[in-house]
Amino acid sequence: MAVPALKMDQQVDDDRDFFPTAVSDKVLVEARRKQAICRLFGSSSIFLSSECRRGDRSDLINVITNKAIEHYENGEEAMAESQFSKAVTCFAKAINLQPKQTQLYVSQAEAYLQLCDFQSAAVSYRHACLLEPQAKTLHTRLAFIYYLQGQCLYDKGMFLDALESFAKAAELKPSCRSYHMRSLACLTALGRYTDCLRLVSNWLEADSQTADLFTLRARLHKQLNQVKMCYHDLRSALALSPSCPEAGALLDQLEEASERARQQAVSRALAGELTEALTKINMALEHCPETGQHYLFRGILYRRLKDFTAAIEDLVLAVELSEAGDEGDQGSELSGHTQEDWRAVQEEAQVQLVLTYNDFAVQCFSRSFYKEAVMLLNKAIEEQKEESGLYINRGDCFFKQDEWEFALADYQQAEEITPDDQFIWIRLAVIHNTLGTNFYQDRKYQEAADKFSEAINYNPGVSRYYENRAKAHSKLPNVEGAKQDAISTLVLDPTNDQVVPLLLSLFPGCSVSEVLSSETARTVKAQLMDSIQACKQSASSVLRMCSGLDKITLSHDADSQSDCQSSEDQFDQGAEPPKACVAPQDVYQQIVSISQQVKRAVRLALEWRQPLQYDGPHLAPARPVEQEQSALGSKNRPYHWRKFGGFGVNSK
């Protein structure tokens, strides 16, 4: 079996000797197989052996790498020769071969940048940033490219596109203030001042506050007609940097506008146009909202317009601002006013505050809100304890609430301040008469007589007081005092028929004419006239000598050159007393009205009295209300002295 094999090998060797290029059948079979694969799959190496594939890949990578390096070097040479378009092409070819190389994108972006193609440069840098997210230098360069792009767009007037580019730059580099400022410039060019204001406010909240930022925001506030906020920002800027020229100049403009508006308000007020004056002074306060003088003037206007709540708020604020200015804080120094000016404003505001409390109380009194009126008068008295009119008004409020003792205390306090005020005497007489009436009803006749005597001392010309005391004396009994008081009653009021029965009982067997013509009556009449005349002379002399002492003085010294003695003071100059809850003429009218009620009651009683000889029922038939009112001539009920409660109080 071995021999044939040897023969076969020998035959192959012989064939090689004759055909040197001959290949073996094994090689031919492998060649035919590869040829078939190529026909089916082209140049694919998937069916090749792994050894072949590794060798081919390594060679291919080397070729690609070398080619990318070649393109990169060509691009660098083109950059050196300022052939930027060629450089862009070379770097693009290199990127196609090596897409994960950061430097290739950076070089391409720089080439685009030289061509002023900012959009393409930004795209290249974004690819680089994606490959190396932690590289801060790449982000910084990209932000700068967006900044350059935005600046070019801004110069072309494309503000919206420029704003987008600056916003991207600021987002990549938030610590760079110049990018934010360029965004602010675009917003300003677009007229979006509200967005500008929001941006600057965010800076002030997040970063350190500077005078420049406050001044910038003040300008934005002024552009948006937010003058008050502009003023506050300027004050903040000057507080940080008193020598800031921009803030100082803008603040001067606001103060000048405020002064012009104040002068216009004064002119309107002097012309009686209070509503227009209020509009102008509001404008002045918008420009300078920390000026106490303006709040003082507006408070006076509100008081004249009877808006007392707003007046009190403004006047209190004027006092507070003047007190702060008087202490010499930094704000007052910036405003340019001296401490004397602030003190003058404070004094004037306190005077006006007292008058406002009083006027508000008078309004409450007229609407029967007596407790509220007392509270307001309490505040006024706390501010001004030497004004008798305030005590009079509070006494009137207490009187309306039947608080007799409190009313008496206030009237007496007013008398201590102005001892010879006739109007206080009238009130004291009324309150003493009222207290005497109450004592009489409680059968305390001696106390009643004493109170009636006090009433007569203060106002000796009222017949009702003598009549009341005569009745009290008759109960004690004090016959002589009752006789004199009954005679005085008829001397002052000859038509008083109620005291006639008492007089006839005190002088039995005598008629009224005989009593009045007696020596005793002449003596009583002379004494009565003397006391009335003395009272009138005392009151008139006091009114001539002290006509202005019971009033709150609103004017300042004529030699004062402070700002407080300006045109708005002229609007409210002169002595102005606090308004009275019950005017003096009303007091006299009430007294006359009560006297008329007395006469009507007497006449009605005489007309409807029962005859002495009467056989019918002893109970009188009830009269209709309409008949009784027509008999009285008014809708008021018949007067009865026991039910009298004083001036201004209706009988019930």
UniProtKB/TrEMBL annotation:
Q: Which SUPFAM superfamilies match?
A: TPR-like (SSF48452)
Q: Cross-referenced PROSITE patterns, in alphabetical order?
A: TPR
Q: Return the annotated region ranges for Disordered.
A: 615-634
Alphabetically sorted, this entry's keywords are: TPR repeat
The UniProt entry, under InterPro entries, shows: TPR-like_helical_dom_sf, TPR_rpt
Which PANTHER family has this protein been placed in?
Answer: TETRATRICOPEPTIDE REPEAT PROTEIN 16
Which protein, by its recorded name, is this? Tetratricopeptide repeat protein 16
Higher taxonomy: Eukaryota, Metazoa, Chordata, Craniata, Vertebrata
